[in-house]
Amino acid sequence: MPQWNQATIVGVGLIGGSIGLAMRARGLAKKIVGVGRSQESLADALKVGAIDQAATDIDAGVENAELVIICAPVDKIVHLVQQVDRHCQPGTIVTDAGSTKGEIVAALNKGLKNARFVGGHPLAGGAKAGPKHADAGLFVDRTVVLTPTAKTDQAAAETIEDLWTALGATVVWMEPKEHDEALAFTSHLPHWAAAAVAATTPEKWLPLTATGWYDTTRIAGGDAALWRQIFTSNRGHVLKALDKFEKVLAALRESLESENDAKLEKLLNDGKNRRDAVGN
């Protein structure tokens, strides 16, 4: 039996579209409404079956929803949740998929009248954006972080945990600050480094790039405006991660300049061992 009569997804790109496909594949909602500004994107979401109905008016799109999932840039999420709160039914569960949590959760811990908000972040994605590339299996065996606080409705948080578990994910609960500190190292710093490597490479040598360069810089192809928002939203933690990164870079450089081959090999092995520990 469907858990919800209507679920609304605000932002039906890769993540939102994949959530819609995954929910439909598992029969979790009788109707899935997609809300967005782009008629083309909404048409694509309808075509691939990620949503049953499209709307450009968020107010109308959420008025009958029992569940609302916000898949939007981090600097838009607070405003969108507040807008949903003004037009949804009392008790509606609202969650998000934002890459940072501290500022979002702090802003939404107060002032909501109808919505029960639960901060969330699926650690999943892909090289290509848009609903055309949505995948019902995107979240299978992936981690989703939920960031409830003492002010979060416990039943709502457990419902969102059940949703992600049904979509195949492993759910981890963290404090918003802890999430942002961790993601600065595991997500935001890697993108920063990938962008730096790509930008440093002279254009005349691009024909000589191969697998190593492609693997290292793949994520640098992400939307620059979106990543600028993520970096600025998590500025403090990203700067601390960069401090540690720069110390390691300095140690690598010093070992090379001083011809300390043993130290250089040790530092390279430190990186190798940390990477090998992930196991994939």
TrEMBL record:
GO terms for molecular function: NAD+ binding; prephenate dehydrogenase (NAD+) activity; prephenate dehydrogenase (NADP+) activity. This is Prephenate dehydrogenase. Gene3D superfamilies: 6-phosphogluconate dehydrogenase C-terminal like domain, NAD(P)-binding Rossmann-like Domain. Signal peptide: none annotated. InterPro entries: 6-PGluconate_DH-like_C_sf (IPR008927), NAD(P)-bd_dom_sf (IPR036291), PDH_C (IPR046825), PDH_N (IPR046826), Preph/Arog_dehydrog (IPR050812), Prephen_DH (IPR003099). It comes from the Bacteria. Pfam families: PDH_C, PDH_N. PROSITE patterns: PDH_ADH (PS51176).
